[in-house]
Amino acid sequence: MKLVSNPARRPLDGTVTIPGDKSIGHRALLFSLLSETPVRVTGLGDGADNGRSAKAIAQLGATIKRDGKALVIQGTGLRGMRAPEGAIDCGNSGTTIRLLCGLLAGQPFATGLVGDESLSSRPMARVIDPLRRMGATFTGVARGSDIVPPLTVGPATQALSAIAIELEMASAQVKTALLLAGLYADGTTSVTEPGPSRDHTERMLAYLGAPLVVERLAGSAGPTSKVTTTGWHGRLAGESFSVPSDPSSSAFLVAAAILAGAREVRLPHVCVNPTRTGFLDAIAAMGGEVVLEDRDDHGPEPLATLVVRGAAKELRATEIRGDLAVRSIDELPVLAVIAARARGTTTVRDAGELRVKESDRIATTCAMLRAFGIACEARPDGFTVEGRPDRPLDAAVVHAEGDHRIAMAAAVGGLVAAGETVIEDADNVATSYPGFAAALASLGARVS
Q1: Active site residue 330
Q2: 20 to 30 Å CA-CA from 199: which of 11, 108, 326, 393?
Q3: At which of 198, 220, 242 does a domain end?
Q4: Are 18 and 253 contacting, i.e. CB atoms less than 8 angstroms apart?
Q5: How many separate domains does the chain show?
């Protein structure tokens, strides 16, 4: 699949409803499996990744019925899962496979977890190693000092052992896997992070009645977050999960409006959980303006309509590091495109996790910008971008390397390039935002 992006001829204008947030969607599906009462899930996107989680819970014993646009899921409870027939295919979804590692670590049966070519090259040791310390058993494919899929999890022949662990790098996926395993462990499991990762797991498991304690600590090197749970023999139960619009997908349309200019672009019902809005803070630091309207803070996740109006003033370089890098980790490729149009040198640090995404996103982000004629230097934990605000980006052929966020970021860059931009290997856009090109086109962009 190719994407073709042409320079914008006029400011973007219109309203787009972004698909449901993938991170929350995965958790709504997987956590509904743990509920003893039926859970109604609304707002799910139609991307392939969430579909993998839905198929996974069905293999593990959940019953899923469609009611209009909603799914009604009858789960198995914590201890009612059944051994699946055959391996669970996680496709391209790293979230599905990593969360399943934690969920299945304490089950009395073995489960195979497989994925596509891209997922089969992604490192799993940072999830598997602490789970092994809890007594879980895993087999997989050794790759250097790491392990990659296909994996076999379990069976657990006795209760897992609780663990107290300090993560070197904040990671919502690792944290979630350990908390899920902790529900099946003897004793108290705690996960401490060097900064705030996404907290959807804490919000949603607490809603189901799981025993969770969240602490914000003042550490010597800055703020840390600690989440504690205990082995649980009670019941988990919920009624509904409403999945808001995905802020990560929203970031690409926001960036397009910032760069191409906007009469008025509105994105309603977007999750503005502070652990997910680092990209808005980074855009503000670069001189872009995004207004939050229609705020709703009454549910488990805060919501707002994101609005971009007018043309951005001259954009300026900034530094993205520490907490800000953690809170904008998935948006860094498109923030790099904005940085390409900013005056000065933008520096991204503390983002080593980019190395283990669908691609090595430090390498692929730099390759994308170089294709546009922008100087970008890779570093072990980030990159630098030399902005070029005085003339358009070069027309480019960009190889997305199967990474949906690189493909979408390049399409946004094409709106401010000197000619047609062609993005190769863009098939995996369907894993997160199948309607991406159509959404941009509805705002007046020439993307197909």
Answers
A1: yes
A2: 108
A3: 242
A4: yes
A5: 2
